[in-house]
Amino acid sequence: MKQLFDQDGATSAVAAVLDRSDRQAPSGRPWVMANMVASADGAYAISGVSRALSSPEDREIFHALRASADAILVAAGTARAERYRRPTAMAEFADQRRVFTPTPAPRLVVVSRSLRLAEDQPFLSGEGVEPLLLHPADADTSGVPAGVELRGLGSGGVDLQAAMRSLDADGVRIVLCEGGPTLLGQLHELDLIDELFLSLAPILASGTQVGILGGGTETIRQLSLHRVWEANGFLFLNYRRDRQGQPAS
Ligand SMILES: NC(=O)c1ccc[n+]([C@@H]2O[C@H](COP(=O)([O-])OP(=O)(O)OC[C@H]3O[C@@H](n4cnc5c(N)ncnc54)[C@H](OP(=O)(O)O)[C@@H]3O)[C@@H](O)[C@H]2O)c1
Question: How is the chain classified by DSSP, letter by letter?
Answer without folding.
Answer: -EEEE-TTS-SSHHHHHH--TT--PPTTS-EEEEEEEEETT-B--BTTBSGGG--HHHHHHHHHHHHH-SEEEEEHHHHHHTT-------SB-TTSS-BPPP-PPPEEEEE-SS----TT-GGGSSSSPPPEEEE-TTS--TTPPSSSEEEE-SSSS--HHHHHHHHHHTT--EEEE---HHHHHHHHHTT---EEEEEEES----SS-B-TTTT-------EEEEEEEEETTEEEEEEEE--TTSPP-
